[in-house]
Design brief:
2 copies of one chain form a homodimer. Chain A has 6 helices and 3 strands; from the N terminus they run ααβααββαα. By secondary structure, chain A is mainly α. In chain A, helix 3 packs across helix 4 (about 65-80). Chains A and B meet through helix 1, helix 5 and helix 6 of A and helix 1, helix 5 and helix 6 of B. The first copy, chain A, binds a DNA duplex through helix 4.
DNA sequence: TATTGTTATACTCTATAACTATA
DNA sequence: TATAGTTATAGAGTATAACAATA
């Protein structure tokens, strides 16, 4: 007797959760036209999250080839969103970090996406909202 | 008094849920190399979900321009994944639907993504799993 | 004339290969 | 010799503009 909610098998839960998550993610991606391409925005977000990174590390993290990262960083630099510093110990290496302007843009973009989501969250009941608080923590663990 | 879980404001919940959802969606996107580009796979999934559609409807749903959809559908047709039928009432219109082979590919791709997720869900505690069952339903509502 | 879909053409983004500079 | 990053070049994928067929 602990059966509550519709009888949900493991495979059924996976399927429903996958659909729900990918759809919401798509909606969120559509929010906030930043003027940057997805690649640029994603690279900027990674640099901001991880901290100063070499181009090689960044290319690996973003799953693109080094020449592509050269161009992505050049474009971000051109917009004044990141700056590079040559490593003193190994002068082949360039470390990239966000500028104040880059951080500002990123926080603005995140703010817009959060606002879109918050507006929808506001329409939920208290219990539903509590469920999502718990679910957010579980989903975070899940994607590690 | 009633303080459980970390003190979560509306904005905080939005931010955390956004991160959790977008990360998990990214991981899921990386699963299952179907041999199709993201555009082709997405168009095929839409046709399968919505049912027979004209190229114009499909272009709107996928948010691409009509000439791009002409090419996407041509590529899918070339792979034997969709078929087109000229509308009898209005012979300008072509309706596209998945072939049996297209449906099979799609179900295989979804199966792989679900399996990836199910493997992770299996490692959760019962209560956490129950939370996600409820959350899946709430998230579905949220993205409508 | 208006609309659906296509063809022609140009642009953007990414990759592979070859190169430069540092180690 | 090996490695970090760049430049040269080519290949996908998309868009805008002009066109063909049907209404």
């Amino acid at each position: 007797m602990t059966t509550t909610t519709p009888p949900t098998t493991e495979a059924d839960l996976a399927g429903r959760l996958r659909l729900a998550v990918t759809r919401l993610a798509r909606k969120l991606r559509q929010q906030s036209p930043s003027g940057l391409t997805p690649s640029l925005l994603s690279a900027l977000a990674t640099i901001d999250r991880v901290g100063p990174m070499s181009l090689k590390e960044l290319a690996a993290a973003e799953q693109v080839q080094p020449p592509s990262m050269t161009r992505i960083v050049a474009a971000l630099e051109n917009e004044g969103l990141v700056s590079r510093t040559i490593d003193a110990a190994d002068r082949r290496v360039a470390r990239v970090e966000p500028t104040a302007s880059g951080r500002r843009l990123l926080h603005q973009v995140h703010g817009q996406k959060n606002a879109y989501l918050a507006k929808r969250l506001n329409q939920l009941s208290g219990p539903d909202r509590d469920t999502l608080v718990k679910a957010a923590e579980i989903l975070e663990r899940l994607s590690r």
